[in-house]
Backbone:
């Protein structure tokens, strides 16, 4: 009986040792998703394109259509989008037409963990009209047909591109003037 008890005790000790040996001391650090700046800039462009596509699908009368825009943003960009879209919905505005991303210009790429990529987006808004509840345009007649937007995207494993937009800043810059 003693030999059997000893065998069970040894088996439990080994199993316990194996179980504790399989548990890591800390969670592994996620790795940066990009190995080259070219990959990072391509992902930032894909992220911004997905965001613009989501904006083009927004129906200001249906707040559920805002969710796709929110899914591509975080931080200040997400807060600004929530405030802007909710405000336009509350005012009864309507958006007509769609924007087209003409090109992007690489600015900087930090490939460390977490990755941070900055690009300038050149957005053609010629076909976009925003009208109030009376059908009157709320777009300035002086609005340039191409808008320059500084886009900062940060690493986020929840998106297909590995990046999410952290900030958007309209620019008075010449990066898109030759477009």
Residues:
């Amino acid at each position: 009986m003693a030999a059997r008890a000893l065998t069970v005790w040894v088996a439990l000790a080994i199993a316990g040792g194996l179980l504790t040996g399989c548990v890591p001391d800390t969670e592994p650090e996620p790795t940066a998703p990009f190995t080259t700046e070219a990959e990072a800039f391509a992902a930032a462009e894909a992220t911004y394109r997905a965001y613009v596509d989501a904006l083009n699908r927004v129906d200001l009368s249906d707040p559920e259509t805002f969710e796709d825009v929110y899914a591509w943003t975080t931080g200040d960009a997400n807060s600004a989008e929530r405030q802007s879209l909710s405000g336009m919905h509350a005012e009864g505005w309507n958006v007509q037409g769609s924007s087209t991303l003409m090109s992007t210009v690489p600015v900087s790429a930090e490939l460390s963990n977490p990755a941070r990529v900055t690009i300038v987006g050149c957005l053609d808004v010629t076909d976009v009209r925003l009208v109030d509840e009376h059908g009157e345009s709320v777009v300035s007649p002086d609005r340039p047909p191409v808008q320059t937007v500084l886009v900062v995207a940060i690493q986020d494993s929840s998106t297909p591109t590995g990046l999410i937009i952290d900030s958007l800043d309209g620019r008075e810059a010449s990066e898109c003037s030759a477009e």
User: Anything to note?
Assistant: The chain has four helices and six strands.
